[in-house]
């Protein structure tokens, strides 16, 4: 290996460098917009790269939300209304999706501020992102606190899935690359993908 | 949208179809090999697609481990020894990495069975995967149980990072695409990436 980085090296990094470095080595992540709406009717949309598989029966999805602050509208709205949507990001809306990470005040809808379009859901108070090609609504099931650093793991159950034009295999596999879905490293580097292969179930 | 899938549609899917479908719509994930060694000295290596960012100071990484069974060697070894390594997967070792998902018994090392090479770490009882171009050792910090379905969120602190030849920016960003690191959908579909852009910090 060309570079060996010790624990002391990491401790001695300045905090922004360290955050970017650690985020990079974690590898490629899903890049999604999470949309909510407050009781007062203000919609919110924010980027999340921590969507994870919790279970498929019932269909449960988790995501991490950073330590709570007054400004964390996504978490506040989910607590208030129990509803949220997860929306894949494609190249056509990449700039707008990234822009939703800016700190807008709680009276501003990031949809309007960033030029994205709300799409009403029949299953949630939370809107979809119209420009997204794969999206689903969820109902809050549990918030698991992570004592170590004050994060919350928010777990929701899928209520409805909307999918654009793409192939879905007989075994349930959805070709999300055909929808233009992107992946990311950290919070600012974005990638298109090329499928190499799909491998059969591994046997001894 | 061409397809609308309701909650009832999901409930009516057969269980394998549903698992593949739900895993697909979660988007692209990191694809890593997690290596451990038991107290008895048997090494283990297994694929994980749930690596997540917990924090950068201290540098904390999390991963989800499915409901416990007697066979879950990775979790058993981490409990016993506190050590594990996370190893990026590149195209050269893709078939071998996928093969580690087969069910070997606890007296078999997946390194040998799958043709991967152990690399001793100075910082952990757990070995690295020699063929991996970016890898790090961790020490167990916390296991957070997820009551909803018996999963465990395993959180470790990084002790050392080894990185192959690639560019690292002045702000800490590591070009992991230059190392051939892959991304995946679900547990069997693998992708190469092409960088589109890295965007500046978004301001209002």
Describe this structure in words.
Two copies of one chain form a homodimer. With 204 residues, chain A is α+β, with helices and mostly antiparallel strands. Helices cover 18% and strands 39% of the residues of chain A. Chain A has helices spanning 7-12, 15-25, 73-81, 94-99, 110-114, and strands at residues 3-6, 29-30, 32-37, 43-48, 52-56, 59-65, 83-88, 118-119, 128-129, 134-146, 151-163, 183-185, 189-198. In chain A, strand 10 (134-146) and strand 11 (151-163) form a beta hairpin. The longest helix of chain A is centred in the N-terminal third of the chain and has 11 residues, at 15-25. Chain A is globular and about 55 Å long. The two termini of chain A are 31 Å apart. Chains A and B meet through strand 1, helix 2, strand 2, strand 5 and strand 6 of A and strand 1, helix 2, strand 2, strand 5 and strand 6 of B.
SSE diagram, text form:
The structure is a homodimer of 204-residue chains.
Chain A: E1 3-6, H1 7-12, H2 15-25, E2 29-30, E3 32-37, E4 43-48, E5 52-56, E6 59-65, H3 73-81, E7 83-88, H4 94-99, H5 110-114, E8 118-119, E9 128-129, E10 134-146, E11 151-163, E12 183-185, E13 189-198
């Amino acid at each position: 290996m060309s570079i060996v980085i010790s624990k002391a090296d990491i401790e001695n990094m300045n905090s922004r460098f360290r955050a970017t470095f650690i985020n990079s080595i974690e590898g490629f992540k899903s890049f999604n917009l999470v949309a909510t709406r407050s009781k007062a009717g203000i919609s919110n949309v924010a980027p999340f790269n921590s969507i994870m598989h919790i279970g498929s029966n019932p269909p449960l999805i988790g995501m991490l939300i950073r330590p709570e602050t007054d400004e964390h509208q996504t978490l506040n709205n989910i607590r208030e209304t129990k509803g949220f949507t997860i929306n894949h990001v494609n190249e056509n809306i990449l700039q707008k999706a990234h822009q939703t990470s800016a700190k807008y005040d709680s009276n501003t809808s990031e949809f309007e501020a960033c030029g994205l379009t709300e799409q009403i859901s029949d299953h949630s108070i939370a809107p979809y992102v119209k420009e997204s090609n794969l999206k689903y609504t969820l109902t809050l099931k549990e918030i698991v606190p992570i004592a170590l650093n004050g994060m919350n793991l928010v777990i929701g159950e899928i209520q409805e899935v909307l999918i654009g034009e793409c192939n879905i295999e007989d075994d349930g596999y959805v070709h999300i690359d055909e929808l233009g879905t992107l992946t990311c490293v950290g919070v600012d580097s974005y990638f298109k993908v090329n499928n190499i292969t799909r491998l059969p179930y591994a046997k001894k």
